[in-house]
Design goal:
The chain is mainly α and 147 residues long. 47% of the residues lie in helices and 5% in strands. Strand 1 and strand 2 form a beta hairpin. The longest helix is centred in the C-terminal third of the chain and has 19 residues. It comes from Dactylosporangium sucinum.
Length: 147
């Protein structure tokens, strides 16, 4: 599976915003703290703002805040905000009936497992070394291990 830079940067930006909810953070500060190209981050934050995951205010007291509590923002929400569909095959839904039945079943299984993982982890889970279940189980899986 390929994770887009946009999704990676969006998750990192949201974690940065969740780490300090007392004040707005400016784009330059988020970019520097998370080593994200500033111009790319502006585009990412625009997508996150459009979908309500962040809110913003202009001016000297302005910046970006989380649009919702970090515990309610799942990784699936983030992927949907910046990339759209979680899984497509050549731009189409994995359930396309024109594929061989075994192949279609494989893509559906991968889609279901991906959705399970991404809906099971929130931005708040990524702030702690001891995430709550089921996020702890998902985050501790060794590479290649079955769930």
């Amino acid at each position: 599976m390929r994770i887009s830079a946009k999704a990676d940067y969006a998750i990192r930006a949201l974690v940065e915003l969740a780490a300090d909810v007392r004040r707005p953070l400016v784009c330059e500060g988020i970019a520097a703290a998370q080593h994200i190209p500033y111009r790319f981050l502006k585009s990412v934050l625009r997508d996150l703002r459009r979908t309500g995951l962040v809110r913003s205010q202009r001016g000297c007291e302005g910046g970006y805040w989380l649009g919702r509590d970090a515990a309610t923002i799942t990784l699936a929400d983030v992927f949907a905000a910046v990339d759209g569909e979680l899984l497509t095959i050549h731009g189409t839904d994995p359930s396309d009936a024109t594929r061989a039945p075994g192949v279609t079943a494989l893509w559906r299984a991968i889609q279901a497992r991906t959705e399970e993982v991404l809906t099971g982890v929130t931005i708040a889970d990524l702030l702690t070394d001891n995430p709550p279940e089921p996020a702890a189980t998902l985050l501790r899986l060794p590479l290649g291990a079955p769930a």
